[in-house]
Amino acid sequence: MTKDWSQRTRSVHAGTRRSQYGELSEAIFLTQGFAYENAEAAEARFIECGEDEYIYARYGNPTVRMFEERIAAIEGAEDAFATASGMAAVSGALMALLKAGDHVVASKALFGSCLFILENVLGKFGVETTFVDGTDLAQWEAALRPDTKAVFFESVANPTLEVVDIRGVAELAHKVGALVIVDNVFASPVFSDAIAQGADVVVYSATKHIDGQGRVLGGVVLGTTEFIRGTFEPYMKHVGAALSPFNAWILLKGLETMSLRVNAQCDTAQALAEAALDHPKVARVLFPGLPVHAQHDLATAQMKRPGTVVSIDLAGGQEAAFRFINALKIVKISNNLGDAKTIITHPATTTHQRLKEEQKLALGITRGLVRISAGIEDTADIVADIAQALEAI
Question: Where are the beta strands (DSSP E) in the chain?
Fold first, then answer.
């Protein structure tokens, strides 16, 4: 039935489980264990756990399952498994699939922790990764090999907002039998149809737009039932990066308002990008919703809307960036994104600090670059705050 509902309706109602009390708001089953009627029932549960049966919160929980089913319905995935954080989702999706000797092709433009997993963690265990310019399909094709097990990329890169052609990469990867794993956090579940465009596995930091109010950590991996239950769940059950039932409840409530928030945030992001575009103290504005963006046409075709994040490169380098950041009155300094509050960060000294200077420059992460995640405040107030901060440089 939920397949006939719009995404906004699924965001409110999909996956709901009600107890005998008929509560309107989803119940929090804040328990780590479950009781059995007798020893025989316990034995049967461990032999085969039914669809709505549970053994231990590390394996599953009714509140967590409501979140998994709802986000799967929104995303158009067969199934989902929730995790303790976004990085637990990313690392788990890769670690559950790969073994020593496997080959991965990944985009160079990745969040620092994602690069660490590919370079340091997987590398230590004998997994080889080839990095490519994610926007160049020719580089993807050249790097793919018969032994390539997976490709991994951010559909919209952090923080330079490069857009990767999901359908194009998926077609190339599937020719060699590689699984396509997409970190879709900047696109959000609201603006992206990554699975319909060829992604096999989609990961989110639910901390971002899904909660979207700065309260809890969470992550989720979505894909086919075969991957989620056959590959990912056996790994995740034993490593223990389970989502708290309380956090799952917070994320469920976040899903109810996600579409309204993210669309409002996108309105503000578009206005910010347009206001900053021709400012004399701005060297460049990075936002897929601007016609000057290198992948504007791809973003328009691939995403329903261009997203909630704008990156601005200030002409005066780090000194100008810090003066600008420190002059802001409403916008808060933090390394989060997708929040109800407008947030700014300086990637070169925070989220991407561990990268060598030549890596930062190769990715376009200059000392003048700031990343702004639009919130849900009044758009005119945020545009005015950005304008007065630019004048303070």
Answer: 79-83, 103-107, 128-132, 148-154, 179-183, 201-205, 219-223, 282-286, 309-314, 332-333, 343-345, 369-373
pLDDT digits (tens, 9 = 90+) for 6-45: 988 999 999 898 988 899 999 999 999 999 999 999 999 9
- Residue 341 is assigned to a structural domain of this protein: yes
Indicate whether 76 belongs to any domain: yes
**Which two three-digit tokens encode residue 315?**
């002409």
Q: pLDDT exceeding 70 applies to what percent of the chain?
A: 100
Does pLDDT of 259 surpass 60?
yes
Residue ranges making up the domain that contains 282:
257-391
In angstroms, how far is the first alpha carbon of the chain from the final one? 55
Q: Residues 292, 197: one domain?
A: no
DSSP codes joined into one string, 338-357: S-SS-EEE-GGGTTTTTS-H
- Whole-number pLDDT of residue 1: 56
Q: Give the chain's domain count.
A: 2
